[in-house]
Write a structure and sequence with these properties.
The chain is mostly helical and 447 residues long. It folds into 2 domains: 1-75 and 308-328, no CATH class; 87-303, no CATH class. The protein is built from 22 helices and no strands. It is globular, with a radius of gyration of 22 Å. The protein starts with a helix and ends with a helix. The relative contact order is 0.14. The model has no long low-confidence stretch (mean pLDDT 88).
Amino acid sequence: MLLYLYSALVVSYTVSVFFDSRLLDYIAGIFAILSFGYSFRGAARLYQVTGGIFIGIGVGLALYNGIPLWKLPYFSTSTIVLLVIFYVLPFINSIIVVGRYEQSVNRLLKTKITHLGQLYYRSSLVSFVLGSFLNIATVTFVEAVLQKNLRGIVQRVRHRFITQALLRGYALSLVWSPMEILVAISVDLTGGEYLHFLPWLLLFSVILLVADWMLGFRYRSYHIPEEASRDAVALDKKSIGRIIALFGYLTVFIIAVVLLRRWLELSFLMAVALVIPGYAFGWALAIGRSRAFITYSIPQWKARVLSTHNYIVLFLAVGFSMSILQETHYLSYLQKPFSAIAGMPLLLFLSIQTLFIGLAMAGFHPLVTISILGEIIRPVLGQINPMSIGIVLITSGLSTVMAGPYNVSVSLMGSLLGENPYRISWWNIGFAFLYSGIGTCIAYLLL
C-alpha cells in the first residue's frame, strides 16, 4: 500500500511543479495526508512523537486562526520535494553496486598497511569517495571491512577508530555533494547557484580532510595484527581507473543538474530528483550493465521505498506546521531574535552553528532544524551575503552527521558496534565543532 501511496504522492507533486494548478496542488496535498496517516503506524516511536507534535501544532494554529479544515491539503505539500529525492536516490546507489565501483574503492582498505595511522586516512578517504554516491549505505559497507582489518585490536580502540575515520570522512563527502538534501535545501533557500558554492565547499572538504588525517595519525602506535595483514591486496590500475571514473560521472551529473535547472527554471532539489533516474540508467548503458542494473535496482528501490515511514512522517509533519505558521503573526516572534543580530554576522553564524548541534542532541533531525530556520532567517537573507548564510547552514547541519545521537548515521553506527549513540557523538563532538567552525570562518571571509 505504501508503495502505491508514495508513488502517487511523488507523481502528483512532480506534475504539479510543471502546471500552475490549484487542483493539482490539492490532489498532491490529499496524497500527502494519506501517506502520513498510513506511515505513522510503521514509524519509530521518536518519529511518531516528533511528527505528532508538529501536526498538533499545525492543526491547533489552523483552528485558532480560522483556517477551514478543507484547506489543510494546500498546506501539506511544502516538503514533498524532499520525499521525491528519497524516492529516486536508490537508483544511484544501485549503479555503484552494479558497476562494482565499491569493490575497487574497497581495495584501498586492503592494500598492505603496517599501523592504524595509515589505515585511518585510507578509511577516511574511502568513506569520502563512497559517501557521495552510496550515502548512508557507506556506513554499513566500510564498517564491515574495517571490522575485518581491525581483528585483534582492543574493542574500545577499534570502535573509536571506526566511528571517527568513517563518520568524519562520510560527513566531508556530503558537504559538496549535489545529492545531499541539506546542500540542495541551502542552495534553494538562499537563492544561489550550486556552482558558486562548489569551489568553497570543495576547499572546505580538502582543509578538513587533511586536518582529520593529521588527527588520525595518532593511531600510528597501534600496529596491524599479522592475520589482518595476510589479507592485503595490491591496488591495480583497473581499480584506480574506476575510482577516477566515479568523479568523472559525478562531474557530468552536476552539469546535467545545472543545465536542467536553468532550462526548466526548477528548484535545485527538483532538478536533482528529475536527473537521477535517467542519469543512473544512462550510466548503466555506458558501462554495458543496463540489464543487471534493472534486475538489481528495482527490488532495491522497492525495499527502500517501503522503509521510508520515518521520513514521510517527519518531513510532512514539519512542512505542514511551518506552512500554517507562515499564515499567522507568530512567525514574526521567532524571526525577531535573528533579525536583531543581523548586524553582527559572526554572532548570527555562531548561533546557527550552536543551534544545529544543540537541537541534534535533543533529538531534532537537521532537516527539521533547517526547515524551521529557513523561515525564521528569511528576513536576514537580504542583509547578509546569501552565500555566507548557505555555507553556514550546510556545514552546521552536516556537523550532526558525526555528532547527532539521533541522526541516522550515528544511530546506525551505534547499532552496528553495540555502542550508545551519545558515546559515538562524544567521540566526534570536538571535530563536529571544528567542522562547523571552519564553515563559519569561510562564511565570514565571504561577507
